[in-house]
């Protein structure tokens, strides 16, 4: 298995103290008080602006991010991060119009740039990820705020803290992104 490494820096342009992370980190505050840039040396990661993988999320693949706070549009800091394991296999997710798997259901096996265009679905409030790792987006065409979905049941996006947010597109996190 290829290792995954992300290095967080206190200041923009990779300055100040740094913290190297190779797995999940539920609270980075114990390592550094702020984070304004990062470098992903290998792998893919989700970062969060609250501890314990809560709050706003942002996806990083290999590359350098000299001013990630302004790029993400966040006012706070990166507080936790989750390593996304590389996956090679089939992708399958069921999206539901209502909470607790209610309303219309659609089974997806590939990227969808607009739930409205493809499924005539104006709201998606729960989902069941059977296979693969996915990113869901607030707007069509993979724009806006995002949420990382790994295999499992997500009965209520509202109860997960996404009350005012709609998800309108989604894409698979592919092994070619590594």
UniProtKB/TrEMBL annotation:
Start and end residues of each Beta/gamma crystallin 'Greek key' domain: 43-85, 132-174
GO molecular-function terms, A-Z: structural constituent of eye lens
UniProt KW keywords: Eye lens protein, Repeat
UniProt-listed SMART domains: XTALbg
Any GO BP: visual perception
Presence of keyword Lyase: no
Pfam families to which the protein is assigned, alphabetical: Crystall
Entry keyword Repeat: yes
Record family assignment: Belongs to the beta/gamma-crystallin family.
Function: Crystallins are the dominant structural components of the vertebrate eye lens.
Listed name of the protein: Gamma-crystallin M3-like
Biological source species: Poecilia latipinna
